[in-house]
Amino acid sequence: MNIKEIEERDRAADGLPGKMAAETDRELFTPHPWRRFLARMLDFQLYGWLVTLVWNGLLNQPFITGLLYDLLKAAASLGIMFLAEPLFLSFSGTTPGKWIFGISVCNQDGKKLTFSQGMRRTGKVLVWGMGLQLPLVDLYRKYRSYKTYMDGQELFWDRAWDDMGQDEHFEVCCKEQAVWTACWNGSMKSGMVISVLLTAGFV
Question: Hey, what long-range contacts does 162-165 have (CB within 8 A, 24 or more apart)?
């Protein structure tokens, strides 16, 4: 059952009239694919910068390029993301990238995710949303996720099972503002972050 079908069932149970139901549907499901995508990519880029900082700065290793380095950097970034994102979500309900683009994540009770819930969600994002950053697989999974989301269906990582095997859902909330305003504000904040990193010599 997808998101729209669940909402139709809930409205039928509440006895909402047709016109009001249509208006409620627009309020309940307003897709923000590019905000979510840009927030995800910004987070991943930040983890990549952290890998570069550790490799070149703390470990004092020479700067290298090439496919092997890119794959190793992607793997290290995914590892950091798998641990860092659940921490961010459990403590603040958002991540640096999500905060910049006005996005937060909570469980179906409206509370912040626990660390274990965050790990289950992030693990699914890494596999089903990002294809573990494998060439071509990554592009295919992003395309399929976009289609699923725009069709009003629940993304695979927005639904999981808890430690007792019970079904659980995660809500992704976007601050209500014009898309161009959100992107502009996100771009300005991102530019500030990048400027600080450039000034500090991290990038």
Answer: 162/116, 162/117, 163/116
Contact 138, 131 (CB under 8 A): yes
Give the predicted TM-score (pTM) of the model: 0.69
- Given a contact cutoff of 8 angstroms between Cβ atoms, the answer to whether 42 and 97 are in contact is yes
The per-residue pLDDT for range 43-97, each reduced to its tens digit, is 999 999 998 888 777 666 666 667 777 888 889 999 999 999 999 999 999 999 9
Q: List Cβ<8 Å contacts ≥24 apart for 170-173.
A: 170/105, 170/106, 170/107, 170/108, 170/113, 170/117, 170/121, 171/105, 171/106, 171/107, 171/108, 171/110, 172/36, 172/103, 172/104, 172/105, 173/103, 173/104, 173/105, 173/106
Please state, in angstroms and rounded to a whole number, the distance separating the CA atoms of residues 132 and 6.
30
Q: How far is C-alpha 163 from the geometric centre of its chain's CA atoms? A: 22
pLDDT digits (tens, 9 = 90+) for 138-180: 999 999 999 999 988 888 888 765 655 566 678 888 775 545 4
- Helix, strand, coil shares of the chain, percent, nearest 5, are 65, 10, 25
